[in-house]
Automatic annotation (TrEMBL):
InterPro entries per UniProt: Thr/Ala-tRNA-synth_IIc_edit, tRNA_SAD
One Pfam entry name: tRNA_SAD
EC code: 6.1.1.3
The Threonyl/alanyl tRNA synthetase SAD domain, residue ranges: 95-158
Stated name of the protein: threonine--tRNA ligase
EC class name: ligase
Keywords of this entry: Aminoacyl-tRNA synthetase, ATP-binding, Ligase, Nucleotide-binding, Protein biosynthesis
Amino acid sequence: AHILAHAVHETFPGTKLGIGPTIEHGFYYDFLFPKNIKANEEYFEELEIRMKKIIKEGWIFSGKKVTPAEARKIFKNEPFKLELIKELVKEKKQLSVYYTCPPSVKGQKSKVNCFVDLCQGGHVKRTTEINPDAFTLTSVAGAYWRGDERNQMLTRIYGTAFKTKRELDAHLTTVEEMKKRDHRKLGKQLGIYIIN
């Protein structure tokens, strides 16, 4: 999810970051795109190319615990992150950030060319540990921030990732087979309607 957020942030400057957890068979990330961008699947190829480049370049993940003041400074232009920080502070939880930096930044204190995200961690050490041929972006949907319809509608981009391309291909085949058997789709195709 961090690599997707990184690619989106570079490709669409001004995009605001929501959250990006892992889910069964993959991940998603919520974004608020600039008003002039209508994010949809037509951007997937461009984003996947950038993600694969980041993976192959061996960007380094490094975590750091931060104070609330440091976190607010880092994310001063990210309203959704600021809301999360406020909530985490209220719950007395430790704040941490993860940097994704190009290999040239290794060991430097300055994280100028790095992507940073608010995260509790659990990452690979380098992006090269991820198979660039074993992930794909799968869909885009609308999602209210924090699942609350009173909040702003964000764009959620889903992806799936596996250790090998073979596992990815098998998963995608299974998903396609399940879609073919979807009762809503079959009902329309067969002209079956049930009226209660």
